[in-house]
Design goal:
Distance between the termini: 54 Å
Order of helices and strands: HHHHHHEEEEEEEHEEHHHH
CATH superfamily of the largest domain: Butyryl-CoA Dehydrogenase, subunit A, domain 3
Number of helices: 11
Radius of gyration: 21 Å
CATH topology of the largest domain: Butyryl-CoA Dehydrogenase, subunit A, domain 3
Largest sheet: 4 strands, antiparallel
CATH class of the largest domain: Mainly Alpha
Number of domains: 3
Helix content: 40-55%
């Protein structure tokens, strides 16, 4: 029986992809193998995000790649998901950047912005000439965005924003922030360019997770914006929640990439690590671990692909995204931790990725909806009763 060299393909997942989707997957993987994988352990150790890669990601068409027009690639949802998978196979920080840039910042403008806002920002964001972030979460408002305190009031023809946002990926890098605020007309979104008086960012330090990513606090102190800064089509929580649903879709693919990288590492290590006169891959307990993880990984990959095909047909529902995000991130963390045990003491070294992936996935498990919130979304779908209200 031949050795399975790609644990992701135990169930022949690749056979379900189109030639174009496989080409995109291969192109992204090869680029990252050359430009990111050799350096990612150092970026994580130094808590540094490789900003120099941003224009290159733009040239590859990865920024807002599932959006149409304005310099965006307009690919299928499955292709976007596969790109997220390959990005997170290297590090969650890279996938987080692309998710926030495309599915939060750019999508908020593409879906809810004016034509003038789209023309001003989307081509630059797609090319990686500008960076965006998404300001929704606050220090006291995470899973309950409706309780946000940031507010905007009219002053003549302008809007004046006051408040703070927390745990904002790309915040310290962003040229423009989509900021959600409470108004007399409900929750509205505003585009806040860097350099606007009263708008400042402070990066979060001493992180134990997502270290190769910039996480920031946003402060808005009397930030004055023209009326044209408001996203005209978004009113209420439907605006920001639609953006989060886009980002969660990328996550459910990305988690598969992190898990795949861990399992590939464990398989290679188990085949070369010799104990008691033979490779540890020859022992029953190790094979059970590998088999269980391969089953979990491949079912997660099939779930992601199925949801991607639903999205491409315009049939994907929010609760289905919750199923994918909840399951795939949970399984990816379990796989990362189990792979670390196969590596033994070497598993705590930065030379090997499983523990880095496990640490990153702790953040992924929390953002864009915690396990608890997604569980309750599914529970409401099953029972018709909203337990979180």
């Amino acid at each position: 029986m031949p050795v399975m060299t790609d644990p992701l393909d135990l169930l022949a997942v690749s056979a379900l992809l189109t030639e174009e989707e496989r080409d995109i997957r291969r192109t992204v993987r090869e680029f990252l193998d050359d430009h990111a994988r050799p350096h990612v352990a150092g970026w994580f150790e130094a808590a540094t995000f490789p900003r120099e890669l941003v224009p290159e990601l733009g040239k590859l068409g990865l920024l807002g790649m599932h959006l149409d027009g304005y310099g965006c690639a307009g690919t299928s949802a499955v292709s976007y998901g596969l790109a997220c998978l390959e990005l997170e196979a290297v590090d969650s920080g890279l996938r987080s950047f692309v998710s926030v840039q495309g599915s939060l910042s750019m999508y908020s403008i593409h879906r809810w912005g004016s034509e003038e806002q789209k023309q001003e920002w989307l081509p630059r964001l797609a090319a990686g000439e500008a960076i965006g972030c998404f300001g929704l979460t606050e220090p006291d408002s995470g899973s309950d965005p409706g309780s946000m305190r940031t507010h905007a009031v009219r002053d003549g023809g302008d809007w004046v924003l006051d408040g703070s946002k927390m745990w904002i990926t790309n915040g310290g890098l962003a040229d423009v922030a989509t900021v959600w605020a409470r108004t007399d007309d409900g929750i509205r979104g505003f585009l806040v360019p860097r350099g606007t008086p009263g708008f400042t960012t402070t990066d979060v330090g001493h992180k134990l997770s997502l270290r190769a990513s910039v996480t920031s606090a946003l402060s808005l102190d009397g930030v004055r914006l023209p009326a044209s800064a408001m996203l005209p089509q978004a009113r209420g929580l439907r605006g920001p929640l639609s953006c989060l649903n886009e980002a969660r879709f990328g996550i459910l693919f990305g988690a598969v990439g992190a898990a795949r990288d861990c399992l590939a590492t464990a398989l290679d290590y188990a085949d070369t690590r010799v104990q008691f006169g033979r490779p540890i891959s020859a022992f029953q307990l190790t094979q059970k671990k590998l088999a269980d993880m391969a089953v979990s990984l491949n079912t997660a990959a099939l779930l992601a692909l199925h949801l991607g095909k639903l999205k491409d047909r315009g049939e994907l529902r929010p609760e289905q995204v919750s199923v994918g995000k909840l399951n795939n991130v949970r399984e990816a963390i379990a796989i990362a931790r189990e792979c670390r045990t196969i590596l033994g003491g070497n598993g705590i070294s930065g030379e090997y990725p499983p523990l880095r992936h496990a640490a990153n996935l702790e953040s992924v498990r929390t953002y864009e909806g915690t396990d608890e919130v997604h569980t309750l979304v599914i529970g409401e779908t099953l029972t018709g009763r909203a337990a979180y209200r």
